[in-house]
Amino acid sequence: MTEQLPHEKGFHISWDQIHRDSRALAWRLDGKGPSTEGEWKAILAVTRGGLTPAMIVARELNIRTIESVSVKSYDYKNQSEAIELKPANPELIGEGEGILVIDDLVDSGKTLEFLREKFPKAHYATVYAKPKGVPQVDTFITEVSQDTWIFFPWDMAMQYVQPYRGIDD
Questions:
Q1: How far apart are the C-alpha atoms of 26 and 20, rounded to whole Å?
Q2: Is 165 left (phi over 0), alpha (psi -120 to 50) or beta?
Q3: What is the pLDDT of residues 51-107, one digit of tens each?
Q4: String of b and e for 126-141 (b: at least 16 CB within 10 Å)?
Q5: What is the pLDDT of residues 22-62, one digit of tens each?
């Protein structure tokens, strides 16, 4: 068996795709909030990856209050314990009742597990989910295999790529 190249288990997401998938997430969440009208009190965006989907969901669902929380649970591709770098406003978020927590991806589930301890009444939504993280998320759009690396558009640049065999005829 040959070793896989990094791109072979990669899932490349374009700006158009993250926009479409984030809108699909909004449609799935529409009317599901805890208020009598099915609305959400606010969005808690998990930085950095959750900022773009949170902005799109907020627009689609007409949610004007967006807070952020910064949790770090990995360095590039190495998983670690979740640590909070910037807390959310406790007066706004409380235990999470009526709060929609949004991230781009749930991978191992460590970030959402950490946040669930702080905000047990919140609803957790991601655009993409891997099997280990699925138990930590309430709503998601697309599941990918655990060994797939997702390349988000904010991580990519348009540039020339040399052919795999190094020959450019």
A1: 10
A2: alpha
A3: 999 999 999 999 999 999 999 887 656 677 889 999 999 999 999 999 999 999 999
A4: bbbbbeebeebbebbb
A5: 999 999 999 999 999 999 999 999 999 999 999 999 999 99
- The catalytic site residues sit at 103-104, 107
> What's the rounded Cα separation, in Å, for the pair 45 and 70?
8
- The string of pLDDT tens digits covering residues 120-131 is 999 999 999 999
Nearby residues of 132 by Cβ (< 8 Å), 6 or more positions away: 107, 108, 109, 146
Q: What is the largest CA-CA distance in the chain?
A: 64
From the list 89, 28, 22, the residue with the least C-alpha distance to 58 is: 22
